[in-house]
Request: fold
Amino acid sequence: MTRPGKAAAQGGGSADLYEIRRKIYPRAVTGLFARWRWATVWVTQLVFYGLPWLSWNDRPAILFDLINRRFYLFGVVLYPQDFIYLTALLVISALALFLFTAVAGRLWCGYACPQTVYTEIFMWIERKVEGDRPARMRLDREAPGLRKLRIKATKHALWLAIALWTGVTFVGYFTPIDVLLAKIAAFGLGPWETFWILFYGFATWGNAGFMREQVCIYMCPYARFQSAMFDRDTMIITYDGARGEPRGPRPRKTDPKVLGLGDCVNCGLCVEVCPTGIDIRDGLQYQCIGCAACVDACDKVMDRVGYPKGLIRYDTENGLAGGWSRAQLFRRVRRPRVLVYSAILLALTVALFVHLALRTPLKVDVIRDRGTLGREVENGQIENVYRLMLINGAETPRTLRITVGGIDSIAVASDSQVTVGAAEAHAIAVRVRIARDHRARPGMNAIEFTVTAADDDSVSVREKSTFYVPR
Reply:
């Protein structure tokens, strides 16, 4: 494998600026952590592929309606003004990532990251079509022919089917999935829907089918800054060098101590099952995504040779150096960094859901008519005109009453009652007047609009504005 600067170091005339990719052929592995990985594959994909098909109040349960600027999340309807909730969700997600990383390293990368999940699915298809590691390596070395073309074409056809359905599902979060499929059947897709289905499908096919570990190593920024979230009590995939070295093959029934060997039989399976192609025995590396495939492979070898499991295992630097028990490791989970992350994460999560539960399903924006600041009308009254944008966040039509206060004798002179459709926005011009014998001072005076649901006084919004009195 060519590394940067290697040619120059060996006396060559030039140095490579990048590492030439060596294709990796991960071997299939079974075990506890492999089962956990597949459990997360099933859970994440059932959620991703299934949510667009769920209905709620005769509409998709989750729908990001960009055209009408409405976002449906089960019983909640959000508008662009609710961007603060998205911000809170992103902060919570970041804190959760920090917490999981501080406790057990790259759990997200190894088990739930879309790149890991789809690579796992694509590799499963590859193994079913082409065979396990040795068979795939032989096939790639084989001269081009009908057999090789048939096998490769079958694999890519299955990959493309999954990738395109993934693209369709992604767009199904923005266009109702039944409407989208009807458009596809009638060849009536719009340009943006066509683009995003093909783009998302191509990205899935390319990343999970070809780039794989390159995405994790070179494209994902998390691999670069993860070490800032580690400490010596973070549980990571470790190789117990004190127990395993010196490594080497030996007859199965021979005591390794007689030969001066450690427990590592140097079978190389930990390297062959690694999706990024590293040797965990060289120590922690940023390429390690924490999938624990090497743990499953090593444990099986230890079972076969009759040695204790755990030569490669989840452990901490302090635990490995001190020979700590599992109970001692878990006690160190409750350290200050983890407790602070947990407290902040819990507080933000509770605050978000409480705020969502208590939010008023009504929004009001008041805009003054700047063309006419204030004018005198019949009977010497002073009139200002406003434009009220009423947003009904409920999924039932609602009749709203508009009142105004803040100045003696101030009142709404136009229609003070309006009906707004379910999950709709409605703009209305409102004329506000004060009597001739008002006591308001010339210039701007503070006033307040109150918009209340006619059927529920608890649904009420107050919005401040100003009333202009000519001098």
About this structure: Residues 31-78+113-227 form one domain. Residues 1-12 have pLDDT under 50 and may be disordered. The CA atoms of residues 215 and 325 lie 36 Å apart.
